């Protein structure tokens, strides 16, 4: 039979671990909230940019469709060959590709789950395969 003092010492150690874990979880929660507050405006800006690109795409498609309907033959020259129309188109397409690449690589996640210390301990055990006292 264990002595009462040994049992109390073990319980005290477990309590200190739980308090430390709760402090860490509170700190992480605060940091996550701060991060979400900081990234929120960026997400809003990206959504507005995406909408603007969609609008520009629609406008350009409408212009293309209008020109295709109006002219059945060769499109008349517009006298801007010196301005490098091909360069403008290439740069525009390169910008579109860069934006698409950026949009496909941006990493956003859902909010992390809120766990009790016991659930957190169980998750750590599952991840490590070891029993945490």
Question: Could you please describe the fold and organization of this structure?
Answer:
The chain is mostly helical and 133 residues long. The protein has one domain (8-72, 80-110). The protein is 75% helix and 0% strand. The protein has helices spanning 4-70, 85-105, 117-128. The longest helix is centred in the N-terminal third of the chain and has 67 residues, at 4-70. It starts with a helix and ends in a 5-residue tail after the last helix. The mean pLDDT is 83.
Quick tags:
mainly alpha, 0% strand, 133 residues, rod-shaped, 3 helices
Précis, in short:
The protein is mainly α and 133 residues long.
Mean pLDDT: 83
Give the N-to-C terminal Cα separation. 20 Å
Bulk shape: rod-shaped
Write the H/E string, N to C.
Answer: HHH
> What class would the helix/strand composition place it in?
mainly alpha
Strand content: under 5%
Low-confidence stretches: none
Counting DSSP E segments of at least 2 residues, the number of strands comes to 0
Largest sheet: none
User: Number of helical segments?
Assistant: 3
């Amino acid at each position: 039979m264990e002595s009462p003092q040994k049992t109390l010492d073990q319980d005290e150690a477990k309590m200190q671990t739980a308090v430390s874990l709760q402090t860490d979880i509170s700190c992480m929660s605060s940091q996550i909230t701060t991060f979400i507050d900081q990234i929120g405006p960026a997400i809003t800006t990206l959504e507005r940019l995406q909408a603007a690109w969609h609008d520009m795409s629609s406008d350009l498609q409408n212009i293309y469709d209008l020109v295709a309907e109006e002219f059945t033959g060769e499109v008349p020259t517009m006298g801007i060959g010196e301005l490098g129309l091909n360069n403008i188109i290439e740069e525009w397409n390169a910008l579109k590709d860069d934006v698409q690449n950026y949009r496909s690589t941006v990493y956003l996640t859902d909010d992390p789950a809120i766990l009790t210390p016991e659930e957190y301990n169980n998750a750590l055990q599952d991840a490590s395969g070891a029993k945490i006292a």
